[in-house]
Amino acid sequence: MRTVFQSLADAAAADDFGPCALTIGNFDGVHLGHRTLLKQTERIAAMHGWRTAVLTFHPHPTAIVAPERAPKMLTSLQQRLRLLESAGAERIMVLPFTQEVALMSPETFLREVAVEALGAHSVVVGQNFRFGHKQSGTPEILAELGHRFGVETHFLAPVTIRGEVVSSSAIRRHLANGNVSRAARLLGRCFSLDGEIVRGHGIGSTQTVPTLNFEPGSEMIPGKGVYITETEDLENQRRWHSITNVGTRPTFEGQGLTVETFLLSPFDGQSPERIRLYFRRFVREERKFPNPEGLKTQILKDVTRAKRYWSRVENLQPADVGSR
After folding, report:
1. Is 243 a residue whose pLDDT tops 70?
2. What are the chain's domains?
3. Which of 114, 120, 149 is nearest to 44 (CA)?
């Protein structure tokens, strides 16, 4: 079971973070590249009897040093922690990224944070890893500092899928374009959103079809459109096949972005309060219809398409379906 620390003082006081093999990064999305780093870290830790540890940052460093360029996060902090644990992390340090941290030299960062506070005996990062003030710490500098402080350093090549380098920025680009299938290949699972069910405008129940209105907990949302999804009730472990619209409800002159999901089968008992949406396939772009009846007709067509999709999926062997 993972143990999470959110200050270096707490990690040092606990006296059981290290000795460890440590991987460092933002780990937004915990995609296949991140999981490769975790696997290598786990192997090294097992060889020496150390712990498998992760050092990550919150908020994203760019939000502090260049907020105008800060990316939309693929996962909330809680999602990131859950995914890191599933990838093998035993100890996780969520370092609050502040101006003080941003000003640390590479030497100070490695010595005071990784070695002294976290007990790192080995550091595993990607070949493009940068750290320290103005990202002045290169892999070459890390290797030199590691030798000086008695820390092993390991640098992994980027992971590629069908010729594309796996990265959080590539996943964001695919999601923005509605290509959730491509994003899933880079993530190694379906992209998902966690969040609360909120009260809608009452239009679906009276004019089209009833839906669950969803308030996502993460910043990155797939581009506007209709998607085949799976809906999970996080409190009662119920699941439904579903179809989800991401958009502004142009038929009803909507303004803000909404996420609305329609379950393909009824639920027993109370409506869920907190759900997870797994995005499986893009269906169509969102568009304005002349009246609610036209929208309802299109939704029913979308539902038929989604049911055909799920029928095909259920006929596949489990190994072919892919991980959520």
Report:
1. yes
2. 3-158 (3.40.50.620), 180-321 (2.40.30.30)
3. 120
